UniProtKB/TrEMBL annotation:
GO terms for cellular component: membrane. Keywords: Membrane, Transmembrane, Transmembrane helix. Residues 25-128, 138-260 form the EamA domain. This is Putative permease, DMT superfamily. The chain crosses the membrane at residues 30-48, 60-78, 84-105, 112-132, 138-157, 169-188, 194-217, 224-243, 249-268. SUPFAM superfamilies: Multidrug resistance efflux transporter EmrE. InterPro entries: EamA_dom, EmrE-like.
Length: 270
């Protein structure tokens, strides 16, 4: 149940960001920066002082830069594209992480999982359809997935440096600094609606990721991994409820392929 709530809150945060950017009330750069800045303020009181020297580690700056690129890119995609399509294209991230982990971290690879990763990539192509009637703006979602795949790989590489909460502080605060120029360059006109959506974007994302850490601390990763794909179901549902956007046939097929390949890969890993 914790995972289902977490996987619903993360798309809800991106929904708030989409409402801001698609209406022209704020830019993707501001949404990304405000999410990191507010997240830092929410987490900082609960992090011990021993975490702050980690901010001097250049490897953690690389990790935060990848996360920053991913969040800015996904907000660029959400400005014009349906929520479900963006999340489906974004799920190229686990595929990128798998490839990078095999080549850079020397993690074991099997033929079955490699073929499933390739199948999942074909599912992403069915959603994006580059050069075959798909939207060129979905390339931003693919870029977000590539950045996120790199972020996942560096997170595994650097997981020994601190606790999840300590590493959360470093990624949020460093990312807030990296995206500060984008945020300050395009401050929105203040209003109650902008404030509510800005805090909703940051709050839903922050709580979703904290619940994710809470769940992974209490159950094996192999058991929880399949539930990550509930994000796609939540994204389709929210897109339909708020924007009356329903995926077309090829997108449905692509979603099914991505989810099927991901669930089967998680089962093999388990």
């Amino acid at each position: 149940m914790i995972m289902f709530v977490a996987m619903s809150m993360i798309p809800a945060g991106d929904l708030c960001g989409k409402l801001l950017t698609s209406s022209g009330a704020a830019t993707p750069g501001f949404v990304a920066w405000s999410r990191f800045a507010i997240g830092t303020l929410l987490v900082a009181p609960f992090v011990p002082r021993r975490a702050y020297p980690l901010l001097l580690d250049r490897r953690l700056w690389l990790r935060a830069a990848l996360l920053s690129g991913g969040i800015v890119s996904i907000q660029m995609a959400l400005r014009t594209e349906p929520l479900a399509n963006v999340f489906a294209a974004f799920f190229v991230g686990p595929i990128v992480s798998y490839v990078l982990s095999v080549f850079l971290l020397r993690e074991p690879a099997t033929l079955a999982r490699s073929l499933l990763m390739a199948l999942g990539f074909c599912g992403v192509l069915l959603v994006v359809r580059p050069g075959f009637g798909g939207s060129s703006n979905l390339i931003w979602a693919v870029m977000a997935g590539v950045f996120y795949g790199g972020f996942l790989t560096t997170s595994r590489w650097l997981s020994h440096l601190g606790s999840p909460l300590e590493l959360s502080l470093t990624q949020l605060s460093i990312s807030a600094l990296l995206t500060l120029p984008l945020g300050l360059a395009s401050l929105p006109t203040p209003s109650a609606e902008v404030a509510a959506l800005t805090f909703g974007s940051a709050g839903f994302s922050m709580l979703g990721n904290l619940l994710l850490l809470f769940a992974y601390a209490r159950a094996p990763a192999s058991r929880l991994a399949p539930l990550v794909y509930f994000q796609l179901i939540a994204a389709v549902s929210l897109g339909w409820l708020v924007f009356d956007q329903w995926p077309d046939t090829l997108t449905w097929i692509g979603l099914a392929v991505v989810i099927g390949a991901g669930l089967t890969s998680a089962r093999l890993r388990r």
